[in-house]
């Protein structure tokens, strides 16, 4: 019997037992669908992170102080300060722009309304490492910081850059005078103000830690959604002049971390080495507690973590496929028993052992293959629905190899679990098979 004829016979057998065939394929459908859905979520997360990284450029370097637990209470060293930032700016020849980072949870209150936001201290070069486009007003230009780097970065921004929809961004005077002003995200505006109410010029109270301060709203960011995977959306952020954050809230020159942009592509690793060398020279006893990394390095580690999740979650789906394969074997054994007389007739008219073997293996592979195709369609459909419903928070992406992997594994499961029933059928004695009732 030719292979195509075996497929025709297999499809005829499936149609003759529609409900049984569907229930047999169900385990394969669920298994393949689960594999594709899990891979799509993980790949979507990775693409989101890569997209966010690419928007900032590949030449961004991060640095922060992370002492081991046993060192946290020893000595008086508190971490990076503005002195370190200024030293790196002077001595690091591969650094184009450097931005100290100072941020934390904040409670924003206006009258009886409040919102738990993320406060971000914005320096003059905040724009160059955290791109913001201003449609109205002016940039927040810091004293003594690299203006060219900020303007160049803004010129290179992509279409989905952040914008100030109403009012202005923070200015140089705000920085120099520790001004009590702020720019708020779209979600904060909607939470604290009525729809037809203009927030510009209004005073809101911001609490960060034990400090509490009234700030005047000078700008509102355009709605952005959750565009920073794994981070707070700009809609939930309140931007405050960096000097105001230090002088009026923290009362310290300590910064949480710093971000820097190196000069040109491919220089990030060398720039990171320069930053580490400078910090090591300034703080030799704490050198091993400084974490210096690049976006490329973070992405490599993220890939390693996602690979582990992908293997573990994919394994759950493959277990479902194995359960489906056991179901296929069970049904094929029943089919061999039901068609014993048919097998005897085929052998009596000249069918060889290999013909019977091919027929039942083909039937098993057809069941699992159709289940695999339906599983691929199911997985694509659910992934698309998840991506549509939660595109900002849980993006999805189904690579072509995931569909091929799911379908190929389903067919392989069908072939593997169909071999034993097929061998059993091929070994039946034709005389005894003809006598079977």
UniProtKB/TrEMBL annotation:
Keywords, sorted A to Z: Cell membrane, Membrane, Transmembrane, Transmembrane helix
GO MF entry, a single one: transmembrane transporter activity
Keyword Ligase assigned: no
Record carries keyword tRNA-binding: no
Domain MacB-like periplasmic core: 21-143, 158-275
Protein localization: Cell membrane
Listed transmembrane segments: 21-42, 307-335, 356-380, 400-423
Pfam annotation, one family: MacB_PCD
Family listed: Belongs to the ABC-4 integral membrane protein family.
Record-given protein name: Putative ABC transport system permease protein
């Amino acid at each position: 019997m030719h292979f195509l004829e075996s497929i025709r016979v297999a499809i005829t057998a499936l149609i003759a037992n529609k409900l049984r065939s569907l229930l047999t394929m169900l385990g394969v459908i669920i298994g393949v669908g689960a594999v594709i859905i899990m891979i799509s979520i993980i790949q979507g997360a990775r693409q989101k992170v890569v997209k966010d990284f690419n928007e900032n450029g590949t030449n961004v370097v991060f640095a922060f102080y992370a002492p081991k637990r046993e060192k946290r209470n020893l000595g008086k060293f508190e971490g990076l300060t503005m002195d370190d930032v200024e030293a790196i700016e002077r001595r690091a020849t591969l650094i184009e722009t450097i931005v100290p980072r100072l941020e934390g949870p904040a409670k924003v209150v206006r009258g009886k309304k409040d919102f738990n936001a993320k406060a971000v201290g914005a320096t003059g070069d905040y724009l160059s490492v955290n791109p913001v486009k201003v449609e109205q007003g002016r940039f927040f230009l810091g004293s003594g910081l690299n203006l060219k780097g900020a303007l160049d970065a803004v010129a290179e921004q992509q279409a989905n850059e952040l914008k100030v929809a109403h009012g202005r961004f923070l200015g140089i005077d705000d920085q120099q005078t520790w001004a009590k002003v702020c720019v708020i995200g779209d979600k904060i505006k909607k939470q604290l103000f009525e729809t037809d109410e203009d927030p510009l010029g209004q005073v809101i109270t911001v609490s960060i830690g034990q400090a509490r301060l009234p700030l005047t709203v000078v700008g509102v960011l355009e709605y952005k959604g959750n565009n920073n995977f794994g981070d707070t959306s700009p809609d939930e952020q309140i931007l405050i002049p960096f000097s105001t954050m230090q002088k009026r809230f923290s009362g310290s020159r300590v910064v949480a971390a710093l971000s820097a942009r190196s000069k040109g592509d491919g220089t990030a690793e060398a720039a990171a080495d320069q930053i580490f060398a400078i910090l090591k020279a300034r703080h030799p006893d704490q050198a091993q507690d400084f974490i210096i990394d690049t976006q490329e390095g973070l992405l490599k580690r993220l890939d390693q973590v996602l690979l582990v999740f992908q293997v573990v979650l994919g394994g759950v789906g493959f277990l479902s496929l194995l359960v489906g394969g056991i179901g296929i074997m069970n049904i094929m054994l029943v089919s061999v028993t039901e068609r014993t007389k048919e097998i005897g007739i085929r052998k009596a008219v000249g069918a060889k052992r290999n013909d019977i073997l091919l027929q039942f293996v083909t039937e098993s592979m057809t069941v699992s293959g159709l289940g695999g195709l339906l599983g691929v369609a199911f997985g694509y459909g659910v992934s698309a629905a998840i991506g549509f419903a939660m595109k900002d928070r849980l993006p999805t992406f189904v690579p072509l190899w995931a569909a091929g992997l799911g379908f190929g594994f389903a067919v392989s499961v069908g072939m593997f679990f169909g071999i034993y029933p097929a061998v059993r059928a091929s070994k039946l004695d034709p005389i005894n098979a003809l006598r079977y009732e």
